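Supplementary material to the annual report.
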Amino acid sequence: MKDIAAGLLTAVVALTVVLGCATPRGESGALRDLKAGERPTLDSDEAGLWMAMDRVEAKLKTSGHIIADPALNSYVRTLVCRLTPPHCDGIRIYVVQTPHVNASMAPNGMMQIWTGLLLHAENEAQVAYVLGHEIGHYVRRHSVQQFRDLRTKAAASVFFTTLAGAAGVGFVGPLIQLATVSSVFAFSRDNEREADDVGFELMVAAGYDAHEAPKIWETLLAQRAATKDPKSLIFFATHPPTEERVVTLKALAEKTGSPPGERDAGRDRFLAATLPFRASMLRDELRLRRPAATQLLLDRLSATSSASGEIQFFQGELYRLRAASGDDARAIAAYEKAISMGDAPAETYRSLGLVLMKARESSRARAALDRYLELRPDATDREMIHEYVKRLE
Amino acid sequence: MTARTGLLVSAVIFLSACAPVKLIEPTRVTVGDGFSVEPQIRWSSLPARPGLDLWTVDGATLDAVTFFKGVADGQPLYRGPMGGAPQEDKRPKFRAAMTATDIAELFEDSFAMLRMQNLETTGLRPAKFGAEDGFRFEMAWVTPGGLEMQGVVAGAVLKNRLYAVVYSGARAHYFPRYRDTVENLLKSITLR
Amino acid sequence: MGGRSSAVRQRALLVFVAFAVAALATGGCAKSTIATRPDKWERVPATARVVLMTPDIELAELTAGGVLEPNADWTEKAKGFVGNALQAEVGARNARLAPYRSPTDDARRAHEHNQLIKLHAVVGNSILVHHYGPLRLPNKEGRFDWTLGNGVTVLGEDAEADYALFVFMRDSYASAGRKAAMVGVAVLSLGRVVMPGGVHHAFASLVDLKTGDIVWFNRLVDPQADVRDASPAQSAVKKLLADFPL
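Predicted assembly:
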């Protein structure tokens, strides 16, 4: 659009009546809860919503972003069914590969869990709280409630778009669209409070440590503080983060009477299920090129004791990619620390070799690259690595 | 859906109704300064953003040969405004000191920035780029709309600039169709 | 109402730009144009089995700010109206028309089907841009030889069909605010600046399920077409299927 047209347009739009968006009113208890196995009657407005979401789901299935791994899917299924036994059959779970943190439920029972959430959560209890929160929106039928509260037709059509976006169709377009779309139509504060309550109840009833609930919020808030572009944090688009939520959840946890750490956080189960995917999730995370936020994540992960050589390797990768002054030396130190821990992935030697090459440490570089080739004789890039070794001789 | 699957070509094309599409005949063609190839078959050269040439037989979202004609130190692979992609200063940049491994990573990260999914880079190996020492690797990815794509990248760094040829196409039918032709095209590269 | 970020505007512009060529190509002309392969055409038997692929339709609202907002409600309804109209129009001429069903029991074959369906959308878009549009490909010399390739035999076997009919529509309708803005811009610029009224295009293609070749293709560009209701959807489909070879 030429500048002159844009300028004229601005002038005209200023005079044009802009349709107002009805402020959603979340009346708790205005709609009775969804019953297990229930589907809306065909001619209801709710049926229209379900149909729209069925289409979105069909698109999501063929989008190429879904992780089909049976073990991972079985793990999340077990988790959801532990949280909500009556509704478990009506929920279909999709694990979506993306470094962004998010989980969502559409009114037709389509649940999305984005792998960013699995990377940033510390244990099963934290994931359970987030999923429980989404199940809360679903069971309390907040989407339908909001739809019925709308007064203007224009806002109604926006509503459908928002739902599609929140359900992840915006995902096959720019993710930032979700953030913008929610500025038009987020869940109301009452809806959010209610979903927090339901999420909390479900996680406690399933036996999880309630003190984990506020922790995932704190993690996300810290991530936001470390990011220069907060609009890129998708979860916040539909779930406005407030200190109030953290305070409320902490108070609720106190009230349960169980001290922190007494009840189950499901840490070992969670780590066992997600560890096979951690390397690829961290690669996706690094690609976001948000070193400050990624550093917070790595700090948290370092505190875990499982496969810590892998974490140190990615610490080295962070430095290598950041490439600020002094980062080469930091990267080398991190790779060497990873190697000393005994469970560093073979790629550590490759990255170490490449950074040493850059630093003109030829014999150390050659040793590292040789070791990589020993560990990965079938590496698809072995010819190139051989070439580097040759040049270092 | 179509606009999204066309995102990669939008990365290259700077649409302008006035810029004509040129016919490329199968005789040696100069692509850039001292950079020439033998096209092997007839192609159409589409209007492209500065620093790139873009050839196709059936349309750039189906099959495309993209020439990177000397990316300078500190520049990203794709320059200029691109709807949906980060601003130029936020894009991954080429550095003259990069190894072939770093350059393969640069292509992967640039494609990820264009929202391509399930990126896989394989077979990185040294290969002649014209008479120069260069590299070659294969790529596979899925467009935002879910169409599976394949690519092969040939390149070299000369006088601190990156020269590369990327052949990309839909896995179904189109990529295999011109693969052998492009192999001969790559063999014919001259770079001075 | 919350403000639109520039990223959304950029994306809308990208959508606009990606379709711009198709839009530019209309030049105000609402005629549909047929490109066929006559040599292939004579070999289509009257008793051909045709599978009707699920229409790929998306409708959007064009807001005053130039943002294309997909509208799921309109899209749902249009899919129904267009699907029914296709069934009626083609079904009247070919008794062996059957709707497409994805193979539910074989994930690998379903995946291949999906790739072909997605490939068709991209091929169709290429045809719009390069056969009808201003970015004609001189290497083709006017030939219409686009194909899905012989990977389509999977689809032919599973659907038990000789040909597949695909329909694709992207349409947008200007909001009231947009219409006001268009008039405003025209007035303020003394008619020199024309604000685009959105995206309108539809195409249909008949694919030979042995070779993947597109044996019949038609494109409809009609800014007046409105498929959000049954009756105008029927007339749009009639126009789209003009000179359909069955």
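Chain A has a mean pLDDT of 80.
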